[in-house]
Amino acid sequence: MSETTTIIAEIREDVGKGASRRLRREGKVPAVIYGGRKEPVSLAVQHNDLLHATENEAFYASILELKVDDKKAQQVVVRDMHRHPFRPLIMHIDFMRVSAAEVLKISVPIHFVGEEESPAGKASGVVIQHQVTDVEIAALPKDLPEYLTVDLSEMEAGDSVMLADIPLPEGVEIPALTVDEELSVQVASAIHVKESQGTGAAAAAEAEAALAEGELGAGEELAEGEEGAEPEEGVEPEEGEKEGEKEGGE
């Protein structure tokens, strides 16, 4: 396990949209902590410190220490986080208290190793695909891993790795598999591809042909708000889009 990340927070008394906007202007992020058979508490966290912490993959899948004012630090996990649609800003974050005696369900990333050394990785015309990059696990806090490792060093062309094939540390389960082994899905596979696949060459050729035939005119540009469209410069999203349904509409 890596060094525990500590988040410094302060209790906030005023809540609501106006209070949240004031906090953000001060460089802080509205937050809430709940769970552990205790009442929810509204908090504020320094934005830049939080943004820096989120750069570490382990931030999302490990136990953090949350220190509120001068009180004793408590163990928490990130349960939800809302980012600004197109700016590098965190709009709101939820923390959940962790009990040492209660099993915790959390999604952790999958790390694939040995891919380049595998027979499939060395074979011409074979691509190793990662169909799943994170998985929900269940474990006591003391047994919680930051990630699961899948070794692909023996993978041959045509092979696949299933969810049930992932080696689990002691005390860790995958809830989906405890319900039904048949729910196991493909995590990685080594497939043969055609020369044009995976390069985008075929799609580019089709687009050029469509333009030449006038199938895509200037009037068919994506409107703002449609998938793939860039937001208009200087236009703020609606308040509800920024923050989600947090704390009664913050």
Summary, kept brief:
The protein is an alpha+beta fold and 250 residues long. The chain contains 6 helices and 12 strands.
Could you characterize the architecture of this molecule?
The chain has 250 residues and is an alpha+beta fold. It folds into 2 domains: 6-98, Beta Barrel (Ribosomal Protein L25, Chain P), CATH 2.40.240.10; 104-192, Ribosomal protein L25, C-terminal domain (RNA Polymerase Alpha Subunit, Chain A, domain 2). It has helices at 17-25, 47-53, 119-122, 175-179, 201-212, 239-243, and strands at 6-11, 28-35, 38-46, 64-68, 74-83, 90-97, 104-113, 126-130, 134-139, 148-151, 160-162, 186-192. It has a 6-stranded mixed barrel with strand order 1-3-2-6-5-4. A 3-stranded mixed β-sheet has the order 9-7-10, with no helix packed on it. Strands 8-12-11 form a 3-stranded antiparallel β-sheet. The longest helix is centred in the last third of the chain and has 12 residues, at 201-212.
Unreliable segments (pLDDT under 50, ≥5 consecutive)?
Answer: 215-249
What is the molecular shape? Answer: globular
Q: How many strand segments?
A: 12
Strand arrangement within the widest β-sheet reads 1-3-2-6-5-4
CATH arch. level architecture of the largest domain: Beta Barrel
Total tally of structural domains: 2
What share of residues is helical? 10-25%
Largest sheet: 6 strands, mixed, barrel
Mean pLDDT over all positions: 82
What radius of gyration results from the CA coordinates? Answer: 23 Å
What structural category characterises the helix and strand content? alpha+beta
Alpha plus pi helix count: 6
Quick one: CATH class of the largest domain?
Answer: Mainly Beta
Task: Quote the beta fraction.
Answer: 25-35%
SSE string, helix = H, strand = E?
EHEEHEEEEHEEEEHEHH
CATH topology of the largest domain, by name, is: Ribosomal Protein L25, Chain P
CATH evolutionary superfamily of the largest domain: Ribosomal Protein L25, Chain P
